[in-house]
Fold these 2 entries.
Entry 1:
Amino acid sequence: RAKELGRNNYQLYTESMNQKVLQRLDIENSLRRAIEKEEFVLFYQPQIDIKTGKIVGFEALLRWYHPDYGLMPPMEFIPVAEDSGLIVVIGEWVLETACRQNKKWIECGLEPHLISVNLSARQFQRSNIVEVIDRIRSSTGLAPELLELEITESTAMQDLSFTIDVLNQLRKKGIRVSLDDFGTGYSSLNYLRQLPIDTLKIDKSFVQDIRANSKEEAIAKTVISLAHKLDLTVVAEGVETKEQLLFLKKEKCDKAQGYLFSKPLPAEEIEKMLRDKKCFVIGEEVDN
Ligand code: C2E
Ligand code: MG
Ligand code: MG
Ligand code: MG
């Protein structure tokens, strides 16, 4: 009896393993065709200057409308895209689409804003990454100063001398660099000191747990003042409440991004915001 049960359990186990493998293969196959089938869309989330309440930039965030599963969150398919190498073409599509969109807004007569684009580890580690970025950026005609690239701490850490070299080349071309999800990786002060970056993004896990006298409050305060001493711009991500914003304002954090202001939105809705010159004051909208 026990033996039988054991065998059944084993069978169940392998069946669910198989299912996982099959689902992954299925995602990989449909990912392969997603670009040509135009299933990808970029959403844009505003970044707000905490001093003025003005929108100063946007982060481009990838969305996939899967034909069977519907809207798929990036965390579910980006790891598959990384493992299969598909992230390279997807990443190029993202970069081109974001640069082109930003250029289009400017051509419409809207005020220029910074656009931030996420680079994945595998995409960043390609030997020709600087040429690829430069070629795509210049083909869209977007000024390099209006493009910012986000890499995570763990991407930056994988090969420090390669990272420093690539970031130096990008910045020499006028492109800005941001260190994403700061605080979730190794956060070594030794490499922070060496990395040629412009911006530091405090991870939302710290921002969301900010409470008076909490450890997160102490960490956020320290990261903001450290970043300023290193001459970096600080962005807080995942800002959801007025209390969090007031704290960030008090600590002189430069920019904020989060649901308090806006969720990531399709380009058309962002365009409306820009036309209206939408402005925020400590979480409250004011008419301009
Ligand atoms: P990330 O780069 O750290 O992006 C911020 C994430 O936080 C986004 O999730 C955004 O929607 C979410 N977020 C913003 N404000 C709030 C808030 O107030 N509360 C909460 N709970 N969440 C907030 P999203 O769009 O699901 O993207 C998740 C991650 O997927 C990104 O994290 C990034 O690592 C990756 N990703 C997204 N688009 C791309 C892309 O085009 N290329 C690459 N390589 N990675 C991407
Ligand atoms: Mg990011
Ligand atoms: Mg982030
Ligand atoms: Mg994050």
Note: The chain has twelve helices and twelve strands.
Entry 2:
Amino acid sequence: DKGGWTSFMAKEVSEGPEAVANTLRGRLVDDSVALELGALDDAVLRDLDRIVIVACGTAAYSGLVGKYAIETWARIPVEVDLAHEFRYRDPVLTPRTLVISISQSGETMDTKMAVQHARAQGARTLSICNTQGSTIPRESDAVLYTHAGPEVAVASTKAFLAQVIGQLLFGLHLAKVRGTIDDAAIAEVVGELRELPDELRQVLAEQDPIKELAHWMSDTRSVLFLGRNVGYPVALEGALKLKEISYIHAEGFAGGELKHGPIALIEPGQVVFVVVPSPRHEPLLHSKIVSNIQEIRARGARVIVVAEAGDAAVLPYADIVLRVPLTLPMLEPVLQVVPLHIFALELATAKGLDVDQPRNLAKSVTVE
Ligand code: F6R
């Protein structure tokens, strides 16, 4: 039931705040995190020497955010592998490796096979999953359910937010167990996590500029997305969603990669979305992305910026600024991705497409 919405995707985007609140529920106690991970007890977590995140598509992009957060807080090497690339080679796995799978459906064949391979090699496995009782959690040592609620639209939206939250919770828990973070730092993140549902409601309340933008862009042929650090996976996700439901060619890049090739694509009129980190928390990254914006503007790009409220440094270079509330760097993707999800939704709608059932795609890819 679409509950009065024009599409399941529109409904699910609007459910982002509840998805995040439900994923956090019961897992924040006072100023700290409380996770129950069964077989992955403290002794096992202390002994780990490496983490590999396996997933596909949007779930894999959430894994890139997870990598930055877990490495920052728990000081353990984390790599992100597409599940199908992981299982069709011979990855190095030991009992001290934790393989974290991320899946909305819990049924994605590639991800399931990656988990089975990891277990057969003696690695530990944690499933971050949205669907209770699905296959992947059953085949893993432990599970952290995301509780985003059912996702019907083929394109994943609220589940991405919840996947990021699940990994942030795990990252904090792991860091606490391993003693790599102090209580004050945990308390600061926990405080900001509690604010996220309301901040998401603010982002959702400001959709009109995005709708207008989507309207004038409905015959655009190509859109680029740039980000750095945790903004990089946001750029990748923005591009995936656009190609998936609006059939517009879209690419996401890391800002630093621009001069290594992609800048050749910039010609007058090329639309580029830029995901901007907080100038308060990340002044260096911020100045780097501002120089990226200057480089592409100088070549005629039309620049649409996603930036935190109050960031005035981007104003001289942006054609349009989409604002998100202030938060901590690791939490920014949860807010920044929402305008990009709405943009894809509105553009596909402006083109008269079926946003819930894009051509050639299935919700759950249970075949190879
Ligand atoms: C994109 C999308 C897909 C899925 C991917 C993994 O909008 O929905 O890229 O994210 O197929 O699916 P799950 O999370 O069910 O394993």
Note: Residues 56-59, 103-105, 108, 111, 155-156, 240-241, 244, 364-365 surround fructose -6-phosphate (CB under 6 Å).
